[in-house]
Design brief:
It contains 3 helices and no strands. By secondary structure, the chain is an all-alpha fold.
């Protein structure tokens, strides 16, 4: 199955940009209800029997639990010294030197 995903930014670009000065709240709500790529993928997977609603719900719960665990760890770990700010920022170190990160 091939699935094209056209995304839409529901929020503004920054705290100073609420995202409602150049589009209406109704437009944002309409897109969220009819063209949300995550909802569309979920519905398509269920309709072609790639997954059940229960399986997708379990995936959502597992992801939420993993995120909650990572947030708790981030909050409880001690703050690193400033000189460590750019250390080990890549999962796999690139095969070339990146200024300020190696």
């Amino acid at each position: 199955m091939m699935f094209e995903v056209a995304t839409y930014r529901y929020h503004g670009h920054s705290m100073s940009d609420p995202g409602t000065t150049y589009r209406t709240r109704e437009e944002i709500q309409e897109v969220r209800q009819t063209r949300d790529p995550i909802t569309n993928l979920r519905e398509r997977m269920i309709s072609v029997n790639l997954a059940t609603a229960e399986e997708i719900k379990q995936v959502d719960l597992d992801v939420r639990a993993e995120i909650d665990k990572a947030v708790e760890q981030a909050k409880s770990d001690p703050e690193l010294p400033v000189e460590e700010m750019y250390t080990n920022i890549f999962v796999n170190e690139p095969p070339f030197k990146v200024r300020g990160t190696n």
